[in-house]
Amino acid sequence: MAVFGSALLDSVTTSVEITDVSVGTAKIEYLNISNASSGTGSYGVYYTDTSGPFNETGDRVYIRRAELTAAQTVYLSENDFPQGDNSSHFLGGHATDFRLYVEAVGIDIHVIFKREDVTSAGTTTLTIPDWTTDQGSANIHAGNYTDTNTQLPLIDDNTMGTALSTNVASAESVKAYVDGKTHLELGTAAGRALPGDTTVISAAQASAITANTTASNFIQVAVHTGYYSSSTSLYYEALTGYVAENASVTSYVSNIVAPYDGKVVRIAAYNSTTTSKTRTFKLFLNRQSSVQTGTDAATASYTTKEMPDLSPTDWVFSKGDSIAIQTTNSAYTASTNTTIVLEYDITT
Q1: Domain that residue 82 falls in
Q2: Whole-structure pTM over 0.70, yes or no?
Q3: Taking a C-beta distance cutoff of 8 angstroms, is the pair 311, 240 a contact?
């Protein structure tokens, strides 16, 4: 806090205190001493540890003492007020420089000053501990803080049998675990497989590849039929590709021969009418209309031109069987296309 002050020294008042006893530390920014008389006078600026000026029993430390000629002004700045140890320009804290006074001899001596109070009385001074020596209970140790660092425990388990979400495996155990697994390494020195590259595998690796590779032993074949029917009587699909339906199970246009064991897996159809109708399919083998194989495959009533797909589950046949599929419509269907999907076991 800046404090400005002034005083007139004459034959009655011969000194003035520049500092304030209630302030622990202060800095003098400037101090001007003027002789306004026509005569010669003198002045002195000193520190003292006494409670008042001119106490000869106290110690005084003069920093300036000189004559004042007529109309002379002396200008002092902060650099003229070093502390007792000469390390700063602050007053206070030393036995010999608690208080600063100006004394004068003359009849018209004017004193003007500016003081910066740095620390007020009662202010707590922050002391930084000397950590190069033992500070007792103030030392930083485990009891003075909470360790918030979470470090997972390390395990060295080549089988990873003790692995948990709360621990971490060593690099050596991870390598041992991976190396212990049966795996096939493909690639080149460049780190990737390229066309024409080869690699050597062990007999065990080859067996593992064979054991884990499922060969497809089945093929599916679609048979397409098409004809125009205005009848609701039963007839047989022209599996040979003939363009007219036939009502006889023994007709050559109604039968095909199975080259392998197999089954019928799907029937799809499309016609040109939207009347409400149902459609029923039956499987007969070896041109025998009296012996049906499997159960009926029948649709619910539908009005669309596309028939709901049917997937028989028990329409099976053997290699060499003659296959015929009978159809009955509950209503007029007109132009009709049918696709029948057969699945063959080519190992038979």
Answers
A1: 2-120
A2: no
A3: no
